[in-house]
Amino acid sequence: MNHAVLIALGDELLSGIRQEGNCSWLAEKLTRAGWKVDKIEILSDGGPDLEESLKYLAGRVDLIVLSGGLGPTHDDCTRLALARYLSVPLGEDRNTYDGVLARYPEENRAGLERSREAQSAIPLGTRGVHNPVGSALGIACTVRGTRIFAFPGVPAEFRAMAEQELAQDILMNDLRMTSVFVAGWPENLLKDHLAPVIEQKDLHISILPFPGLIEFVLRGEPERLEQAEARVRSLLPGDCLPPGASSLEEAVILESRKRNRTLSCAESCTGGLVGAALTEIPGSSEVFLGSAVCYSNQAKKSILSVSQEVLDTYGAVSPQCALSMAQGALRIYGSDLSLAVTGIAGPEGGSEEKPVGTVWFSTCGSGIEETTMRRFFGNRRAVRDRALMAGLEMLWRRIVKEV
Amino acid sequence: MNHAVLIALGDELLSGIRQEGNCSWLAEKLTRAGWKVDKIEILSDGGPDLEESLKYLAGRVDLIVLSGGLGPTHDDCTRLALARYLSVPLGEDRNTYDGVLARYPEENRAGLERSREAQSAIPLGTRGVHNPVGSALGIACTVRGTRIFAFPGVPAEFRAMAEQELAQDILMNDLRMTSVFVAGWPENLLKDHLAPVIEQKDLHISILPFPGLIEFVLRGEPERLEQAEARVRSLLPGDCLPPGASSLEEAVILESRKRNRTLSCAESCTGGLVGAALTEIPGSSEVFLGSAVCYSNQAKKSILSVSQEVLDTYGAVSPQCALSMAQGALRIYGSDLSLAVTGIAGPEGGSEEKPVGTVWFSTCGSGIEETTMRRFFGNRRAVRDRALMAGLEMLWRRIVKEV
Description:
2 copies of one chain form a homodimer. The first copy, chain A, is of the alpha/beta class and 403 residues long. Chain A folds into 3 domains: 3-166, 3-Layer(aba) Sandwich (Molybdenum Cofactor Biosythetic Enzyme, Chain A); 177-235, 2-Layer Sandwich (Alpha-Beta Plaits), CATH 3.30.70.2860; 248-401, Maf protein. Helix content of chain A is 39%, strand content 24%. A 6-stranded mixed beta sheet of chain A has the order 2-1-3-8-7-6, sandwiched between helices. A 5-stranded mixed beta sheet of chain A has the order 13-12-14-15-16, with helices on both faces. In chain A, helix 3 crosses helix 4 (78-86) and helix 12 packs parallel to helix 17 (380-401). The first copy, chain A, is elongated. The relative contact order of chain A is 0.08. Chains A and B meet through helix 1, helix 2, strand 2, helix 9 and strand 10 of A and helix 1, helix 2, strand 2, strand 12 and helix 13 of B. Strand 2 (36-43) of chain A pairs antiparallel with strand 2 of chain B, so a sheet runs across the interface.
């Protein structure tokens, strides 16, 4: 197995203002191609850590990819650190930089000429890497058998250059990892249930819990993977998202389109999260008609026709109100199915009878009406995210159950 | 200055399936408290790297915080790695685990008793850390003057335990970093405009562009910070979010509450993103009444009373439709102000006249009606996110302009 280490440079990543994304993006690509990423490091722009890491890693792993620190600003120090590590001076890669400039319209070139010295500099003896998106060159070299690449940290530039440089001999294979997404199972029970698959020696399994969904990741040889995935699906009838769906919202849209059923929602505590999640999926407009976000009781009455009596007698967080909201959505949007969500996201608004985290769901359509209550723990964001997931799961199961 | 290194454990982070979030969250807290985070490492669950890192780092930095690898599943190996590093066996912290169990209802305890052996184990001589959210204990110890903490990787657990354990003597100081959020400025123009502040030698400035918003981060001594922040605000009248708001949605809710104005939305291409963003803010229910997500033309007509004529003559992505949607929201919710968003998020649906990325916005209320068009680049997600930001900015500016 080939081993790689990925290193991101940037003080903004170490002060937590930005989250690292390039290395984890590349890590997924490498993993799918059968590589093992041993480590991801995030280091300071200007410090001595990069040289130390390179000294330690060269000769020990097959590939090192650096992200960031190649622009023209004061804290972009990767080219200098590489030159110091290689004990060579910086030289200029005129040709490659001219190739980059040629991509720009005439009127932008004067500005780029001013950055030439900084952006075209590479350590002597290394290769400048063409940038098809921005203007800073990348750097490539091989030290003690370890291939080292440095690309700019701007995500579009990093990704384009990594794909261009690593595509052929490094990222060639896209088949050795597959995922099955499972709804409605707690992690530990799922593990026991899937033990026959997990215990197979020639597979590497990861179980990744999301709120309301578990991703069961299998790695191994292509033909073994296919068998194992089929086994997992047969052990969990009705609980696996369909192939091609990696989220509940994708499953909802995919299964509705397959069955030609239109959808609508009525949302209170989720405030639009369900609509936003469903419309994230391209093609959702074929089946999703809309969502009536009715945060105030007044809006629940005037828009969804929830009666004052239901609100007075049972309150806005009740099965009666959830059902009435789902019926309202069905009527005002004229959809085949509807989902309603109403609950207490907190931090205010809880009571002993209905603590923060209490959420009522209802689905309506084709003469079937269902209501369910769930109680979620955590802060406002956690309650809302879990309510979103639970609502999507309910809607998905309902669509699949319909013929 | 105190130095910290943060280490996340997890094969799912190295295979790119999950993005690391705990360390960058803590890095921000530490930075704000005057700490320097030297490095963030992401390591494999079961490998020897954690021991190597601990050996290298103990005695060199003041604080090491580990995230992940403390649950009951087969790839949760942090407690074993710590025990090996400390050359001690694992022991059981009965008391602390009993304290965790006491938080759960009777019916859940049998399952947790089964995980007791795995989840209550800590290396002999270390301290078990109470988990106020989940069930796995954390671990705390001091080695060669370096304080070492290990918390579970589930974000809610990691954050609650880090806050609980580090609050007092580590995260005590919240004053050495401040941010001003600026709307409506491109990064390079803002840099020139704020040069008098940026060039001050005793401040460390970062400029962080988000879609539609730039965060201007200042670090330095408390009294210098205060002056510099005032200077920035005076150089950018009307474009800085109010103190206390770090996002456009917070600014919208804060300014509406201050002025006692109620809000509603009508959303097409954003599909609920605006409502979801506004209701993310605690207390939003005081001013936000709801959002009519009308994805289909039929819903725009029946719910928002957009006329067939407007749809036939101008189309759903037009100033006329945006205005009519905003008027509709104002009427059905009875709010003081409303925002409508309608556009083409792609990948389908674009034309030469109205390419993908074309979005019309409208705000209505108090006798003022405004419409604006923006054209965004990028994929579906980028267009929707930018439309969300632009819509929130328009709404925020509108609220602030009202008296």
